[in-house]
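TRAP transporter large permease protein structure dump, as promised
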Amino acid sequence: MFEPTSLVFILTVALLLLRAPIFVVLGTPAIYYLWSKGIPLALAPQRLIGTVNESILLAVPMFMLAGRLMNQFDATTRIFDLAQALVGHIRGGLGFVAVKASMIFSAMSGSAAADAVGVGTITVRAMKDRGYDPSFAAAVTLSSATLAPVVPPSIIMIIYGASANVSIGKLFVGGVLPGLLMSSFLLLTVAYLSWRRQYPKGEAFCWRRLATAFSRSLLVLMTPIIIIGGIFTGLFTPTEASVVAVVYVLLLGLVYRKIEWKTLYQTLLSTGTAVGALMLVVSISGLDAWVIAREQIPQLLAASVTELTDSKTVVMLLILAVVLFLGLFMDATPIILMLVPAVMPLVTAFQIDPIHLGVLFCIMCVVGLITPPVGIALYGVAMVSNLPIERVFWASLPFFVMLLLSLGLMLLVPQIITFLPNLLIS
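structure tokens r here:
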């Protein structure tokens, strides 16, 4: 006979293979554990409520709402026009535009799925119209969407910080240089593929067109400056920054005369639905974390890894490899909620910088968003480009490799992540 703990593991794997909803995958084994151990089931709602009773989690719905409102208020088009005026004249310029537009939009939405669909709707159509291979257009858009949860503000960094008890402000700041590095690697890939395939150049560079595009997008560009600047200077916390972002975006809607009450209501409703589903998963993860702690799994894991190696780098590689594997089947949020409580003792035992690991952890979660069979961003781009998922993924492989190379560089040179947090936030 299997022990209850072994049956919990078997049940979790079975539910994953059956593609059950993630809240079922997380919740059913935990409830079975309580029942098999004779623990009162009344513990479950206590843990569920206690997990989401964190003020920092208020930032998640606010940043999600700000990103969706940005799409409604024509911000994506303004960002695209600015990026096209900046780099559209280069060979394969629309590929550069897709990366630049995604990077700018990333500093407002914090969501790879929102970035993939919001920016992708415009960039994929524009690239197709100008003779680019549709799969290349989709691949550039998909890989660029990985910048959204890395460039602050980042929804998954908020969830990671809350789970690991790590400064979210430092995580935000730590994502700035990695975001720039990743975008540089993506731009190099676009340049090489565009040269090799002789993709067309766009319109000649024009200072007047750039000035016009910049003036049209100036208020939009102020959004990340206000958010990140306020956090840098200590003017407000990440939670307060999320509320400021929503208020500012609503003001933009008034200035641009884009607010329609029916559309605003629908956006609030869809955001509330998404947040409800997300918070359900977050709350159930609290019960899982209690089960994991009760069985002393983190301590056993730390002891096992310590026997294998004493290298900090190898330990981080093992953690990231597990994240990448889980990313093939799960979204970023459940990976963070399931894995972080188990690996934090390793962070302490090996004296790993929690900001360094945290940013790398979130980046690897993001890489999972572009991989089948469960890649939300991959599905989003395939939808807006009207291409099979397999074709989009294979076209994305060169960008996938470059993302992994940038991740390796950040692993070997921690200062890429830790320099700004150590400099700006005490």
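Residues 261-294 form the longest helix (34 residues).
lmk if u need the other ones
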